[in-house]
Amino acid sequence: MTALDTDLIRRLPKAVLHDHLDGGLRPATLVELAAEIGHALPATDPAELAAWYYDAANSGDLVRYIATFEHTIAVMGTREGLLRVAEEYVLDLAADGVVYGEVRYAPELLVHRGLTLAEVVGTVQEGLAAGMAKAAAAGTPVRVGTLLCAMRMTDRSREVAGLAVAHRDAGVVGFDIAGAEDGFPPADHLAAFEYLRRENMPFTIHAGEAHGLASIHQAVQVCGALRIGHGVRLTEDIVDGKLGRLAGWIRDRRIALEVCPTSNLQTGAADSIAGHPITLLRDLGFRVTLNTDNRLVSATTMTREMELLVTEAGWTAEDLREVTVNALKSAFLPFDERNAIIRDVALPGYKTVLGAGR
């Protein structure tokens, strides 16, 4: 059996569906951009700042976790800041072995320095394109699609949904709502989801992280989500391995769960990696995907998330391949393009890396 050490896991092809642009900045970049605009940070040494982020996010509370984003959002309000953050985002994915990624962010949070919503989207796409070109030139190609988020605490979801549809041929592949979950149900944004369905635009919804089954039910049965962001509290509808009606519906219809283990520990949605719901959900046949959520805030990468599951939850190479294929099957891409990445990139890549490890 191939030993799944850090180097081998890093070389495995990966796919990430749930990753926030404003939660994944390089610490050094955050320090430099903050200095350029005169924004005060909790620390100006990159290593100390990274440690501050991780410690501040380990509160066990989603609202306090989200509060750490004020600094990253502050430096992403300029064209120069957005271009740099987006380009580096892609290069960091490529270095982590990611072959397909979907990155999400809320345009409405990034207009505080004068950019319009459309300018924010266009600038991010420009930065992502530059990163993809550099990654390809370096021999580590990665494809990145964008999800536009509306904040569930505000009333701009229909506007942002329109923005997503307007940019669907320019790299935007889907839509989401983000922010504090408890007290801000998905159905509050039903008009946006109905519009997206009419426009044949896919969307996912954060649900089942800080709130339970009611949030997941609304996301799926009322709003029509094709994927669920996190969804780990779906286990509340599973007793002794027997699935309730909602859990059975989600499993049987292959609605993907975008699970983020380290982030879930930080927000109190899970207690440990060894006992994380992702393993139970995988064992019960749900379409589980593995994700980072916020690489800066959680001090993580896809390599680290995989390694934690291997070392602490007993996952195998086959388990890692399964969640990678699951993510590609559920990507917001046309069917033939998803299949091509699975057939021509992911599966051959696994075979090459694991064969080399024997």
Automatic annotation (TrEMBL):
Which residues participate in Zn(2+) binding? H18, H20, H206, D293
Positions annotated to bind substrate: H20, D22, G179
GO cellular component terms? cytosol
Name of a matching Pfam family: A_deaminase
- Its EC top class is hydrolase
Q: Which InterPro entries match?
A: A_deaminase, A_deaminase_dom, Ado/ade_deaminase, Metal_Hydrolase
- Claim: Hydrolase is one of the keywords in the record: yes
Gene Ontology MF terms in the entry: 2'-deoxyadenosine deaminase activity; adenosine deaminase activity; zinc ion binding
Q: Where is this site: Important for catalytic activity?
A: H230
Indicate the segments forming the Adenosine deaminase domain, all copies.
13-345
Q: Which reaction does it catalyse?
A: adenosine + H2O + H(+) = inosine + NH4(+); 2'-deoxyadenosine + H2O + H(+) = 2'-deoxyinosine + NH4(+)
Q: Name one GO biological process term.
A: nucleotide metabolic process
Q: What is its EC number?
A: 3.5.4.4
Active site residues of this protein: E209 (proton donor)
Keyword field: Hydrolase, Metal-binding, Nucleotide metabolism, Zinc
Cofactor(s) for this UniProt protein? Zn(2+)
The cofactor note from the UniProt entry for this protein is:
Binds 1 zinc ion per subunit.
Q: Which family does it belong to?
A: Belongs to the metallo-dependent hydrolases superfamily. Adenosine and AMP deaminases family. Adenosine deaminase subfamily.
What exactly does this protein do?
Catalyzes the hydrolytic deamination of adenosine and 2-deoxyadenosine.
Q: What is this protein called?
A: Adenosine deaminase
- The species is Actinacidiphila glaucinigra
Top-level taxonomy? Bacteria, Bacillati, Actinomycetota, Actinomycetes, Kitasatosporales
